[in-house]
Amino acid sequence: MQPLQPGVTYIFGPFTGSHGLPPDAIGIVGNVTVVNFTGAGYLSLFPGGAPDPGTSSINFGPPFASSGWANAFTLGFGTGSNAGKVSIRLSNNAITSHVILDVTAYLQ
User: Fold this and answer.
1) E strands, the chain, where?
2) Segment 44-62, tens digit of pLDDT
3) What is the layout of strands, in order, in the sheet containing 86-90?
């Protein structure tokens, strides 16, 4: 997989109706891990298609780029054409990163 690029909002999903989540789930709970990042930055998680909230879900930086940084999250899904989807945005400061989302529960 290619790393996320800086300043780009990616929309993933839908998660609902697959991966063990029911079609009427409204969000997920889990752990986000950034690995192989190329510098200090932050990552934002927010409902699919919603405006970037301008807040970070995880902040990261050297010296642990090869081992990764992790943080727990609770995240609602987007609505309308983005129902069941989530957005991920890497800070816009000329870095790249791989991201792992581990979903541990869903919200109804």
Assistant:
1) 9-12, 27-35, 41-47, 58-60, 69-76, 86-90, 98-107
2) 999 999 999 999 999 998 8
3) 9-12, 86-90, 41-47, 58-60
DSSP string, 4-32: BPBT-EEEE---TTSTT--TT--EEEEEE
Any idea where the domains of the chain sit in the sequence? 9-107
pTM for the complete prediction? 0.92
Q: By the 8 A CB rule, do 2 and 22 touch?
A: no
Count Cβ atoms below 10 Å from residue 72 Cβ, excluding itself: 12
* Other beta carbons within 10 Å of 15: 22
Tokens of 61: 């930086």
* CA distance to 12, 13, 32, 39, 43, per residue, from 35 (Å): 18, 21, 10, 11, 12
User: In this predicted model, what pLDDT tens digit does every residue of 5-15 receive, in sequence order?
Assistant: 999 999 999 99
Short-list 75, 67, 62, 66, CA closest to 101: 75
